[in-house]
């Protein structure tokens, strides 16, 4: 590490790595810092098809194709009674190559992104912890204080900090700009299984979302490479983690309540212990300021149900990186400049958030809604693909809101 950089990026997940790659490629002296050892484990293996575009910008699509990861061509929903929807095949909606995506091992995927940032000129260090972000008398960024794995503390001067610290949300907590959504306080318990029953043919790599009988929880089914499948259960935090025994007992109890999943695991073997995460949904009320900008989960987190996290992080990283490069070019490192992309991004993210709330409305059925409104099949597929920045993405929600209201009145 040098003692001074133009830009310091904290956190080497998809958001931080993509931002560092773009700023370094744009000629800025960039430092990328990760507190854990790279590669490191992370959940969130399923990509949205629109991930293709930020990966293309980073020059990584060919490497991803050659990685051997499971190709994902579809998603499917299974009701609390075990009834399976018709798969949503992305290429039926859009025949371009970008409609195929992947189920990735995040340790390998994130390492690929980390290495790409280094290739493009960023100084990339792991096992280095952020202790503080420093501001000058005008409330603008002046530097960061870091501590490496040898215990050495370093004060690094910089003009811009890109916060990609994930759910740690360092700057959002420091500046008290983080707002938790009380309606989406979830917890996840998950693990990995060998030889779970997958779909057939092109549907073999599908992400499958399965509801339990009482709709108090749902399971993800994400087929990875080498015959391994990620299986996770998500429900309200109190329901999953309080007063019901161990998380493993809760997981197994919910599994018995999931008629669509139990047959898929009859001959499967679990690999290792289960893992736990609190998936609280939150958003920041300010996304950028003088000399700083937030990306990825440091800016906000919605919910894991539609696998939007990695795509959102990559897209935000590219957008933020461009804004920082442009800011240095024009001599403008204000919050308005560094966050000039956030309004457009947040408008698109609204559609995913609305679909998440619809999913958690027990009285509402997406399958029934699609039977009533087949004209919205393409619009819904757009959201599942991640094509949320087109005006068409909004078209289905007027009818969906009305359908939700009617479903609630009928109970």
Summarize the structure in words.
This protein has three domains: 7-66 and 105-177 and 285-347, FAD/NAD(P)-binding domain (3-Layer(bba) Sandwich), CATH 3.50.50; 71-103 and 184-281, D-Amino Acid Oxidase, Chain A, domain 2 (2-Layer Sandwich); 361-410, no CATH class. Helix content is 33%, strand content 27%. The protein has 14 helices and 19 strands. The protein has helices spanning 14-25, 52-57, 61-65, 90-93, 106-119, 170-174, 237-241, 247-256, 309-330, 335-338, 342-359, 366-372, 377-385, 395-410, and strands at residues 7-10, 30-33, 70-72, 74-78, 88-89, 101-103, 123-125, 128-135, 141-148, 153-157, 160-163, 178-194, 207-211, 217-223, 228-236, 269-284, 288-289, 292-294, 300-301. The strands form four sheets. An eight-stranded mixed sheet has the order 5-4-13-14-15-12-16-19. Helix 1 runs parallel beside helix 5 and helix 11 (342-359) packs parallel to helix 14. The N and C termini lie far apart (62 Å). The mean pLDDT is 94. It comes from Stieleria bergensis. Keywords: Oxidoreductase. Its EC number is 1.-.-.-. GO terms for molecular function: FAD binding; oxidoreductase activity.
């Amino acid at each position: 590490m040098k003692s001074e950089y133009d830009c310091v990026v904290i956190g080497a997940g998809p958001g931080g790595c993509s931002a560092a790659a773009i700023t370094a490629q744009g000629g800025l002296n960039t430092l990328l810092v990760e507190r854990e050892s790279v590669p490191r484990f992370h959940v969130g293996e399923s990509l949205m098809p629109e991930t293709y575009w930020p990966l293309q910008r980073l020059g990584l699509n060919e490497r991803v194709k050659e990685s051997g990861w499971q190709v994902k061509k579809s998603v499917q929903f299974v009701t609390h009674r075990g009834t399976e929807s018709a798969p949503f095949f992305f290429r039926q909606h859009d025949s371009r190559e970008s409609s195929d995506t992947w189920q990735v091992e995040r340790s390998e995927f994130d390492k690929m992104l980390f290495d790409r940032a280094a290739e493009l000129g960023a100084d990339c260090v792991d096992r280095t912890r952020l202790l503080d972000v420093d501001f000058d008398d005008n409330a603008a960024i002046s530097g960061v204080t870091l501590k490496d794995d040898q215990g050495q503390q370093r004060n690094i001067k910089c003009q811009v900090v890109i916060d990609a610290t994930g759910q740690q949300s360092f700057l959002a907590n420091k500046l008290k700009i983080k707002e938790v959504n009380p309606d989406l306080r979830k917890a996840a318990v998950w693990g990995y299984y060998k030889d779970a029953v997958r779909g057939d043919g092109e549907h073999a790599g599908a992400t499958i979302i399965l509801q339990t009988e009482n709709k108090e929880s749902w399971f993800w089914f994400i087929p990875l490479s080498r015959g391994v499948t990620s299986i996770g259960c998500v429900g309200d935090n109190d329901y999953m983690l309080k007063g019901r025994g161990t998380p493993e007992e809760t997981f197994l109890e919910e599994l018995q309540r999931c008629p669509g999943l139990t047959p898929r695991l009859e001959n499967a073997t679990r690999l290792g212990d289960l893992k736990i995460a609190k998936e609280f949904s939150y958003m920041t009320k300010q996304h950028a300021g003088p000399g700083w900008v937030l990306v990825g989960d440091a800016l906000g987190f919605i919910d894991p149900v539609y696998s939007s996290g990695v795509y959102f992080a990559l897209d935000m990283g590219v957008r933020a990186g461009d804004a920082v490069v442009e800011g240095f070019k024009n001599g403008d490192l204000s919050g308005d400049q560094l966050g000039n992309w956030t309004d457009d991004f947040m408008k698109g993210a609204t559609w995913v958030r609305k679909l998440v709330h619809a999913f958690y409305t027990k009285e509402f059925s997406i399958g029934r809604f699609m039977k009533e409104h087949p004209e919205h099949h393409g619009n819904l597929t757009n959201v599942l693909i991640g094509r949320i920045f087109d005006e068409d993405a909004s078209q289905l929600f007027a009818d969906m809101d009305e359908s939700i209201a009617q479903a609630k009145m009928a109970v």
